Amino acid sequence: MKNLSQAEEIDEIRTLVRNSGLRSTAARITVIQFLRKATSPLTHAEIAEDLTPMGFDKATVYRNLIDLAEAGLVKRTELGDHAWRFELRNPDEPEDAEHPHFVCTECGSVSCLHDVEFKTPKNKQWTQVGTVTEILLKGICSECEEK
Questions:
Q1: Which of 131, 108, 128 is nearest to 118 (CA)?
Q2: pLDDT digit string (tens) for 101-118?
Q3: What is the enclosing helix (H) or strand (E) of 120?
Q4: Any idea which UniProt keywords this protein has (predicted)?
Q5: Is the dihedral of CA 83, 110, 1, 91 positive or negative?
């Protein structure tokens, strides 16, 4: 992310939201600012926990996450635990660009694996499977391994 002043960042987010066809509201700007700082996909509960003290109720946060996801600004992912997680889409990537995630089976932490690339072989077996849209890796994170 570029080094922007607070005002420049808000202006950039306003433009991003408006260009997606949504109204630029304080809640949407705050949600995007929060997701920009996140290092991994977050649940609605995790986001709302930080934003409700700022005056945004849980329903407002949820509605805005859904609106931003439908507008293509935020990606919504379910990683096998029946909880939607949200992360900001990279505007430099195509809308259907995906990256794998790693979920720790001990503590439940989630990590994005942006630098990991999987190539689907072009053989008969894979064409029978169809199109792979998401890859989820599970294991034990380095912090839990040290315990």
A1: 131
A2: 787 888 878 877 767 776
A3: none
A4: Metal-binding, Zinc
A5: negative
Give the type of residue at 26. Answer: A
Give me the CATH code for the 1-92 domain, please.
1.10.10.10
Spatial separation of the C-alpha atoms in residues 84 and 79, rounded to whole Å: 8
| pTM greater than the 0.85 cutoff | no
Q: Where are the alpha helices (DSSP H) in the chain?
A: 6-19, 26-37, 44-51, 58-70, 124-129, 142-146
Pinpoint the residues of the chain covered by CATH 1.10.10.10.
1-92
Q: What is the per-residue pLDDT across 77-92, written as a single tens digit (0 to 9) for each?
A: 887 778 899 999 877 6
User: Given the DSSP bridges, would you call strands 101-104 and 110-112 parallel, antiparallel or unpaired?
Assistant: antiparallel
3-state SS assignment for residue 132? coil
Considering the chain, tell me which residue range(s) the CATH 3.30.1490 domain(s) occupy: 98-147
Q: For residue 141, which phi and psi values (nearest 5 degrees)?
A: -70, 165
Using CA atoms, how far apart are residues 136 and 102, in angstroms rounded to an integer?
6
The response to whether 112 counts as a known ligand-binding position is: no
As a whole number of angstroms, the distance between CA 13 and CA 29 comes to 6
